Amino acid sequence: MEPLSTEQKIIQAASRLFSEKGYAATRLRDISQESDTNLALINYYFRSKENLFKMVIKQKIEQLFGSLNPLLADESIELKEKMTLLVNTYTTLLLENGDLALFVLNEMRTNQNMLAPLLKIARLSALPVIQKQLDEAAIDITPADFIMNVLSLIIFPFVSKALFVSAGMFKEEEFEEFVLSRKEKMQGWIIQSLKKKTV
Fold it and tell me: Is residue 85 within 8 Å of residue 71, measured between CB atoms?
């Protein structure tokens, strides 16, 4: 594995600190210490904390949603296989990056246009393909509902983890097992929800 560049080290450190402390409580000095660089280098690469934060957000959004559109827009992948790939890909991604979903959703609250470019691409390329596949299978659900249902089932446990742990539904160390056990069940739940159109 290639060593990280200075810029990558700064972004990685900033990502960790913004996730843990939030934007307001994170100082450039903290990022400098965490990345083992100096403030002058952070200013050289990013000019400001705001620019660095935007870069972190951009990377996190691409990480969370970047693979979504190519998968959904691929006509060669059948609908049920897409669902399986979404469940497997996103469960693994979110287990490896526990704070990712909550971080992105929190930032989307303050900047509602953040996902607009990605959603526009999805609307133009992925939704027509999903609609065609739903029509061919005579399934009575909109493409938006299909995508929303799949992503909600995957993402909700990660954004509500703290609530369920504090309520005693499961222990922190049991979370990964809980999420992995849902993978197979989720596919069944989604398939059951794909009702055929009545003539």
Answer: yes
